[in-house]
């Protein structure tokens, strides 16, 4: 194979978070393919992220790394996942149909988490304007 490296971008489907003993993401199908092709592999995938986050993964990686001899595998996620930047916490969060306040507790307090999920349910996920 001409490509000397495979890099992947996406969510849990690319990372393989459902696989046992896969803390690095290397046991997902793309990592297995790289092993079989005897090329280097790296994943930038983040379980549970939205498409905006995946785009930022790609921009960030290729802003600092060469595209030479690199095959990029990109797996976009559900259109119902939305990424939001919370300015007062200087962090990104992803809201989606499976998001519950507990998933946000490391980023915001309980009240903010509940408010964000209510915003998602009543605006972002149910509005024709958003979609």
Order of helices and strands: EHHEHEEEHH
> How much helical structure, as a percent, in the residues?
25-40%
Q: Largest sheet, described in full? A: 3 strands, parallel
- Contiguous low-pLDDT stretches (5 residues minimum) are none
| Count of beta strands | 5
Determine the number of helices (DSSP H or I, runs of at least 4 residues): 5
Structural class: alpha/beta
pLDDT averaged over residues:
89
Taking the alpha carbons of the first and last residues, their distance comes to: 40 Å
Q: How are strands sequenced across the largest beta sheet?
A: 2-1-3
* Shape annotation: elongated
Radius of gyration: 17 Å
- Proportion of strand residues: 15-25%
Oligomer: single chain
Could you explain how this protein is built, in words?
This protein has 131 residues and is of the alpha/beta class. The termini are far apart.
Features:
131 residues; alpha/beta; 5 strands; 5 helices; three-stranded parallel β-sheet
Helices, strands, pairings?
Elements: E1 5-9, H1 12-15, H2 29-37, E2 40-43, H3 51-64, E3 70-74, E4 82-86, E5 91-95, H4 101-104, H5 110-124
Provide a compact summary of the structure.
Helices cover 35% and strands 18% of the residues.
């Amino acid at each position: 194979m001409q490509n000397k490296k495979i890099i992947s971008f996406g969510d849990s489907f690319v990372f393989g978070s459902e696989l046992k003993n896969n803390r690095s993401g290397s046991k997902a199908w793309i990592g297995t393919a790289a092993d079989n092709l005897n090329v280097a592999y790296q994943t930038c995938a983040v379980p549970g992220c939205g498409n905006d986050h995946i785009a930022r993964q790609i921009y960030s990686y290729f802003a600092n790394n060469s595209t030479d001899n690199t095959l990029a595998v990109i797996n976009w996620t559900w259109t119902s996942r939305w990424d939001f930047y919370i300015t007062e916490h200087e962090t990104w969060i992803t809201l989606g149909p499976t998001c519950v306040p507990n998933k946000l507790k490391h980023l915001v307090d309980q009240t903010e988490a509940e408010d964000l999920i209510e915003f998602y349910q009543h605006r972002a996920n149910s509005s024709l304007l958003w979609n």
